[in-house]
């Protein structure tokens, strides 16, 4: 089991660990300095608990797969994944460092948010989720503490994709034990469940509930026993009827009772006319006929570019679920990380 220490060099000295930031149900997070650019980055690994489990190698395969896919994502409200590195057998996901404050702390300091301000943040996170869903992912841990407000712009950015998984409509999947009570829908309490964008709809609606009331909603498993969810307006009479009703619709206990997509829920919440999401339209047009291209740094770090032909090298590793090839360490590649 490995826990990185302050001042520890990583990836042949390219990065220097600054400090341990946090431990979650899935990952451990560190801040580090990239020496070449002197930029602060965040590096996430699997946590000590997962490292001690017999299926740790398989968990690392999933971690790498998900990191490679997330590195292809580019959206202003989604934390950027730069590359993957390996240090003494432990993979790390190198991400942008966001200077700001998470919404959980922000609400603790400022109290219940005005409706207009809360809707601004929720709309931005909703657009981020639409984008992530269009890539075939679910976040599965949306909550105030996983949303950071950029210091300068107050723009909301969705972080901590540790529980992210691919999904297919109508497919049964195993749910992890890691979840956040109050924000996790009932299907995340079931060992096998059918999950889709409506899983994140519940958490996004629960997040808005919390921002407007400074209360954590009753956990879904409690509600399953017959305990009703108090309407958010009960804790804040300044909440409009439209927003109150949209939150309750998004937090319907059973998936079939919720809006099935984030777009549907945002339309209900904001009373807007159905139209394509500009971010998604631009992404689709700009990425036509491109395939993900994996490249490596001289020290073996993994990054992603895009080209019309994916790399095929003499020695390659194939990670399950993702049709990508990775140039073996020390071999030449189409694009070299700089």
UniProtKB/TrEMBL annotation:
Signal peptide feature range: none
GO molecular function terms listed in the Swiss-Prot or TrEMBL record: ATP binding; protein serine/threonine kinase activity
Family annotation (Pfam families): Pkinase
Source taxon at top rank: Bacteria
Residue span(s) of domain Protein kinase: 15-270
InterPro entries in UniProt: Kinase-like_dom_sf (IPR011009), Prot_kinase_dom (IPR000719), Ser/Thr_kinase_AS (IPR008271)
Presence of the UniProt keyword Kinase in the record: yes
Protein name: Protein kinase domain-containing protein
The organism of origin for this protein: Dulcicalothrix desertica PCC 7102
């Amino acid at each position: 089991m490995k826990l990185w220490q302050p001042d520890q060099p990583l990836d042949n000295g390219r990065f220097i660990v600054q400090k341990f930031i946090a431990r979650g149900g899935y990952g451990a997070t560190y801040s580090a300095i990239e020496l070449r650019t002197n930029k602060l980055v965040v590096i996430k690994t699997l946590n000590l608990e997962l490292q001690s489990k017999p299926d740790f190698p398989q968990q690392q395969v999933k971690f790498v797969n998900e990191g490679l896919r997330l590195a292809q994502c580019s959206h202003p409200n989604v934390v950027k994944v730069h590359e993957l590195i390996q240090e003494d057998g432990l993979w790390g996901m190198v991400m942008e460092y966001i200077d700001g404050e998470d919404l959980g702390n922000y609400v603790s300091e400022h109290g219940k948010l005005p409706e207009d301000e809360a809707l601004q943040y929720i709309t931005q996170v909703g657009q981020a989720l639409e984008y992530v869903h269009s890539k075939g992912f679910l976040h599965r841990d949306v909550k105030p503490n996983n949303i950071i407000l950029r210091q300068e712009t107050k723009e909301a950015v969705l972080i901590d994709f540790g529980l992210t998984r691919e999904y297919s409509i109508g497919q049964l999947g195993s749910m992890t034990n890691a979840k956040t009570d109050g924000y996790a829908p009932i299907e995340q309490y079931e060992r096998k469940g059918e999950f889709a964008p409506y899983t994140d709809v519940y958490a996004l609606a629960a997040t808005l509930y919390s921002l407007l009331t400074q209360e954590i909603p009753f956990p879904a498993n409690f509600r399953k026993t017959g305990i009703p969810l108090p309407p958010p307006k009960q804790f804040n009479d300044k909440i409009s009827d439209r927003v109150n009703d949209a939150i309750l619709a998004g937090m319907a206990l059973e998936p079939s009772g919720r809006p099935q997509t984030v777009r549907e829920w945002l339309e209900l919440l904001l009373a807007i006319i159905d139209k394509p999401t500009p971010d998604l339209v631009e992404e689709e047009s700009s990425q036509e006929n491109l395939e993900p291209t994996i490249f490596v740094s001289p020290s073996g770090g993994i990054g992603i570019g895009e080209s019309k032909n994916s790399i095929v090298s003499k020695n390659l590793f194939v990670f399950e679920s993702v049709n990508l090839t990775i140039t073996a360490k020390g071999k030449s590649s189409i694009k070299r990380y700089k």
